[in-house]
Amino acid sequence: MTDEHASGKESVQRHWVSLIPFGLHQQHPNNYKDILDAVWENRDSLGYAYRILRDGCCDGCSLGTTGMHDWTMKDLHLCWVRLQLLRLNTMPAMNWHRLEDVAPLRSMKGKALRKLGRLCVPMIRHRGDTGFRRVSWEEAIRLIVERLRATDPHRLGWFLTARGVTNEAYYAHQKVARFIGTNHVDTSARVCHAPSTAALKETVGCSATTCSYQDWIGADLLVFVGANTANNQPVTLKYLYYAKKAGTKIVVVNPFVEPGMERYWIPSVAESALFGTKLADDFFHIHVGGDIPFFYGVLKHLIEQGWLDRDFIAARTVGWDDLESKVRALPWESLERGAGVTRSDMYRFAQTFGKARHAIIVWSMGVTQHRYGTDNVKAIVNLQLARGNVGRPHTGLMPIRGHSGVQGGAEMGAMPSAYSMDYPVNDQNATLFAMPEFWGFQPPSWKGLGAAHMILAAERGEIDVLWQSGGNFLETLPEPSRVRRAFGNIRLRVHQDIVVSSTMLEDPADLVVLLPSRTRYEQSGGGTETSTERRIIYSPEIPGPRPGEARDEWEIPVLVARRLDPERAAKIFPWRDTRDIRREIERVCPTYKGIAALHKKGDQVQYGGPRLLADRFGTPDGKGRFTPIDLPEETTPAGRFFLSTRRGKQFNSMVGAEVDPLIGASRDSVLMAAEDAARLKLDAGDFVILRNELGEYRGRIVIDRVKPGSIQVYWPEANTVIPAGRLDPCGIPDYNATVEIIPNSG
Length: 746
Description:
By secondary structure, this protein is of the alpha/beta class. The chain is 34% helix and 16% strand. A 7-stranded mixed beta sheet has the order 2-1-17-16-15-3-4. The chain has a 6-stranded mixed barrel with strand order 22-28-25-27-26-29. A hairpin with a 2-residue loop joins strand 13 and strand 14. Helix 3 crosses helix 4 (80-90).
């Protein structure tokens, strides 16, 4: 063997994890078992299941597909998330008589409730009833309209999930809500990335990712902050495999050393499936909430070493002088204490970052779900602007999305602050939308509430009607007891969904209505979704069975509008199918130009092209804005730990397995650093109680690579000890808490 051949072989092998095939000696997901499980679970409808996978746009995360392929690589695009969700689309209608008595259902977990089958008929439950009663669509709509007519629109809330909902459905729902007169409209997207939207809009003038996934491959540097894509967007690991092949360096900043970001066995790449692939080249083990001091420390080094793009700063940004003055004045002791890493650690990151020709920063809920989440994102923007890492190939800001509907949901106006992404809520735009070429009615221009604020308002008795298209606030929001109290004050709850959830079973204050909905694959005329990289993708209607009397997701609110005001609604909602809605979206949302032409599998358009902000930022003056943000003040009382939440094998709050396949931990695990466990004289497997002023959480100790002084527990189980009223300025809950740890012998 020549030296050249030996060198090439060594270069390939240095990315291998082990010579032991398939990683049989290590803990990691068994993707082949996931495939077999999906085949077995869908055995009664395999043809339909295959057609969904072959022709539909994935309803899992927001990477975006057409069938089982995407626009980043030529290989197969399929993962356990999509396979886990597949049964929601193929399972038959449930026996609706089970809902006539809700008491036996209340003891069932969410997974068991979903397995009952698809909701298939409209049903109602009055206060005092033991369960639901089947009614016609006519009666269900009549009861809803009667109560809407008697309700002040300021006391009406409207919420939409991200579970496979299409752009057309988001648009229809929010337009109906505004037609009725409310701006209390929100989506689950904003419980995840509202801080990203707010920070990016303020600093660079756009609220979406500025680059494409293809930019990952060949970038000098990829930085992941508070993001575990191995769990939430598994196919990204395939992108990372090709990025590593192209010489990309990967760095992770996180309070927990995620093994899936260190190494992974990618099942559809033979080499990786056999030997595994080493991913992260470096890991920065910061404190929970340590992002801002960490990035300030990095910026301080960049300034001191001259690793800045001064030409870019001078030509394309504003606010640098104020930021530089603030950074220079920050003492290293404060930054080290806040970040949880040393000055030399921050130098190591700064050197890698400062010498990279191009870099992309990817972040998720580990960054956003804090009371200072918006400031966390601004700290990331500061770093990228300082190096000119926006608008060029292999550079960008990427708030990676975990659900297929979240990007488009907000852009379609399913949020309190915008009629569509191009038109924020204000008096001027309300007047504009009253014109015939827009909506033909004047929407409200008062400030609406987001999801968390809606529930807090309901707890105060300020919400009388709540429409929920999917979602499960009892599981997704902090302090379930407060959510339950809020529901007790809401006179009418409308649940539009495809399966039963625990929220539906809560006793009515007056009336609860269940409306069965179709999935995106059952929608007449197909539908579109918008991926993280701003790609608007058409997903066709898939031939197959339809559950009972379920109707298209967009059609149900329109039925209410047409009953509420038939004459006006006939002109304002003339839609026959989703093609008509796409034509209207293109008319009132200029950024979505091209959506009207999408009508068959594979059709797509990426608004803004592969990269945004190449020549000009989207701010009024066209400049990117540096922000001299304050350091967050996080203090953990003596004897307490900082608790943060993590996700296992789940999609949103829908838990798919009791054991996290990435680390082998069960759902009741309390992940703790070895030094903390030793100090408390705790061993792996010991039972403990986590306690604070809100309540208790019982779990078992798992010793792992958590940042000392903090612990991690699984969400949504930990919501019982997370405070509901602690919010980021944009309204997202802070999903962290401080707790004391008490040994529990039982």
